[in-house]
Every structure is written in C-alpha cells, then in structure tokens.
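Colleagues,

Please find the record for the two-part complex below.
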Amino acid sequence: MLVAPAPAAQAQRSCHYFEFVKGTNINSTLRWWYTDQYGRCNRSVEWRAGSGTSTNACLRNAGWLPNGWYDLADGSNAPQPIGHVNQYTGSSIFGRVWHLQDKRCSDGTLRTELFIHTEEKPNNGQYCTSDPDDLQCWDSTPAYSGASSGTNDYYSQGCIKVRRPSDEGNWPDAMSDVHSTWHNLGGGAGHGEARPDSLYVHS
Amino acid sequence: MVRLAAALLAVALAACGRTGDRAVGEPTRNLQPGADAEVTVLQGGSPTPPFPFVTDDAVVHPRDGTIALDHEVGPAFSSYLAPAAVPSPDERFIAYNAWTDLIPFDPQKSWSQLGVEPGEPVGTPSIRLIDLETGDDTTLADGAYSVAWRADGPIAYVEGSERDYRANVVYRGHVVVRPSLGSPAEAWTTEAAHYIVYGWAGGSLLVYRVGEGEELDVVAVDGPGHARVLAPHARIIAISPDGTRALLFAYDRRSIELLDVATGGELAHLELAQIRPAQGPPIVDLMYAGSWSGDLVAAVASRPDASTALTLFRVTGAGLELSEVLSFPVQIFPMGIAEPQLLDPPGSRVIALAPLRGKGEAGATVYAYLDCDLATARCTQGPPVTDRLFHPIYNPSRPTPEVVSGG
C-alpha cells in the first residue's frame, strides 16, 4: 500500500473516498483512500475505469464527469437509489452501484443521475447475448478497431464504469474488488445511505 | 461583466449568415465523397462573430452588436443539447435560458461542502426575452427552461413542477406551448418528467426525456396529450429543412438514423462502424446539436484520442451517405468542438464553438468561435472569450419562416 497525502485542498477531510484521475474516456484510474491503523491516509490498489465519450465535462449524456467533490446521493432523488446499494434495478443501470450527487460543471451545466457501476444484472450476474453491447454484460467488444477486447464498455454517458468478468471474457474482477475495498476499508458496512464527500474527480 | 469589447458594436457583417437565412434548396457544392482533411487553424478572427452568440451576460450579434442582458444566462439543464438562446422567427426577440443561483456557484465543492442539505433549493431556471429593438429584457416564464420557437409563432418550453431546482431532486416538469408570446401556456405532456425541448419539426415538437445515467429518449409531442417515443437512447443531430424528417444518432445501436417524424419510420440509416475516415483515428461517437442545410448535415464526432471531427452527411431523398470528415487536432482543441452551424450557401461554411485550454471566469474554460471554410478546410478562430459560457444563438426548428411563407 502506498502512503501519501490526500489531495492538498482536502487533506483535512476524512480520508475515505474514491479518487477518479482522468486519463482518457476508456482508460482512467479509480482508487480508494482510507485511514490506516496509524491514522495515515493511504490509497488502495487502483482500477482502470472509464467515463463518458467526450472530454468536455459539460456535455450531458456524453462528457466525462466534471471535476470536484461528490457526495453519495440521498434518497430524495427518487425513484430509487440511495448511496451505495448492491442490487440496484434501474432502467439502464443494474447491480452494484454508488449513486452520485448531481454536479454542475464549470459553465454551470448540471450533470444528473450519475453512478459508479459496471454492467451486470441486478443480482450481480451476467446476461450476455450476441448483441455487441448488452446492458447487463461486460461485452468483449473492443472500443474501436484495433483496441483490446472488452474495452468498449468503459464508455458511458458520463458514469464511472469499472470492468468485471463475463461470459465473454475472464478479465480481473475490478468491480468486486472495488466493492470489497469500499466495505473493508472505511466505506462502511451499510447500504442505502447518503454519504458526504465520497468521490473526488480531477485531471 | 461583458468581456467582449464594446468595439464589437461597430462591426456588422452584411454577409453574415443566420440559421434563418438559409436558402433551402440551393445546390450544394460538389464534395468528394469520403474526403478527409485536418483543418488548418488561422488566428485573427473578428471580435464580432459572424453569427450571433450568447455569453453569460450578453448577446453578441453581428447585426446589433453587444447587448448586455439583465440576467445571468444559464442553460443548466439544456446546455449543448438544445440552444442556450433562440431567436424569434422574425428575429426581433431572443429567448434565453437564465439561472438564479440560490447558493454560491462553486463546482469544485460537493453539496455537503457547500452546506446544502439534500432537497434544499439551490437554483431557479427561467426563460427571458430580450427585445432587440427596444432593449427590454423581461421574464417569459419562471421555473422554466429550454425553448423552441415555431416559424408561425408558437413557442414551447419546459415548465417545472416546482419553481426551484432542489439538490439531488430530479427537476420534473411538463412541456408547455403558447400559441403566441401573449397567450397562456398549455401543457402538451400528461406525465411529468425531466424533459428538454429541442425544436419543432413541422407541427411536432421534438423533446428529450432525460433518464438515469443521463440516458436520452427522443420524444415527439404532436399536441396536448399526444406524446410518443420517436427513438429511445438517441440524440437529435438536426431537423430537415422542410420539417418532415430528423437525423438522429441512436447511441446504443451505434446507428445514424433518418426518421420520418410523422410516422417514426426509418427512411435510411448508417452504422457508425461504416464511417471509416481515411485519416486519423476511428469515429466512436456522434454528438447532438448539429445542423442541416440543403442536403447537407453537419455533426460533431468523437474519437478515442479525445479529438473531434466534423462529419458531413448528404441526405438525398431517402438516402444517407457520409460526405466529408474534417479533423480538429486534439492539441489545439482538447475538448473538441460543438454546435456546428452550416451557413449559406449550404455546404460552404460552418460556424462552431470550441472550448480551449486555459481558465476563464470562475474557473470555467476559455472559448472561441471557429469560422470554417469547408472547401479549403481552413478555420479562422475568433479571439478568446473568458466568460463562463459561450454558445451560438440558433433556432433548430423547421421549416424556417422563408420556407413557410414561400410554400
């Protein structure tokens, strides 16, 4: 484990949050910060993650997440999710999710109803068909001609996405690792709870 | 503060084009199918864009100069998906999306860092109207956003179920229509949702319904109580000049689809995978808010290296083909380009918005307009604009007044 200061502006805050470091839309980095037994702020292993299809964070439905801090959303944003849940049943998003607060980008545009998630069924299984882009399957489809297998699903409309194995590829199970890290290293045992300052996004 | 110099007032470009000025039906230039090029960017564009733009506090108009607005512009819900500001069909008025912050604007901070409780009011959208003849700047509707203005007068927008947007609460509302500016609004939707009005396609209103994960469904609203999903998970590229067809990008199906608006039937489609530029990286996505003039459609495409391309499609009858791809280097345009507007004569010139490197007002980006000659692939870049936002003012509704009056 690496020991390092949290982002300077926030070092005084509780050290339990995801950090999303922007690289490209399909190859960015997600990691978890936590406090060890000596009170030091450590970062976990890190996972490849994607967000958006454009680097303009003000494009709704296409841009990657705007920079800054995010709370986990409260349940007042009906119909469903509250903070982190394991078996979310949405219309496009399913399974293990962290529901993020709405966020304004630098020009004031409001990005809404965004999550950290993968592509899986509500019960965390997979439903893969011959469709190159199933909603509940991490497909083997490459992001573009010449890209590696299983990279197209890193694209999103803005949500942060991490990979998991499926019928179409035995990739490392980043989602399960994210999930267990969250629960074991300070994210809390609970589900369905709002939580402040749970994600920090930056370039 | 108006950042663009007052000297802009002096410049009026007689040849400037506006969306409403298009001569529909003029022959387009003879593009080479599949022609690809990287644009050459020339500095030194006039401080007055050759097309109307809006900043966070002013209209910058090639005919009328810089006009300060009484209220802060803020298309918080509809930015880029639909125009930030829309000219009236007679071009006397501009309707613009305004926003009132109820808490300090600091996009770096979370709600909790701002001391905002979930459900607490944080902002109020409104639609305002600036009269270019008198300078009067008045509220058209409070608790409302996104405007579509039909050539024969009806004006549509979204009226929120509540006046204020509250933190993390989906801002639901109804699509409403006023037959004219002075008429009362009538709800055309029966189910409240997070809608964004885009434009009129003849008598049908095309709107987005925004869902989880910012999924977009394109909905056609034909009258009070008559809404139908035209295309799920899709983006509107543009409406045809006669208002009968719409070109959409169905992003889940990776398909560019030409639809008959009245029936929803598909007239033609192109798979994104079929678009293979001769130069540069492949195309991986296609954006909304393009434009359609004559038989040409301009749309912005994304590439895996974060660069963008201007793709031009030719629509012939019920046929659809890629005509040209102009690449914009990521080193100069790291966030790409947006909102391309084809000017007269069709196919010769495009005005677009480009976010640039650097920090402007309140940590926002810096912008410039691009004036691109398609025949030479040369784009003249305007001076940097440091206002919080900068968008072209356009009316995507079709047909235009000229077509309506000319039959």
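Residues 92 and 133 of chain B are 7 Å apart (CA to CA).

Comments are welcome before we finalize the supplementary table.
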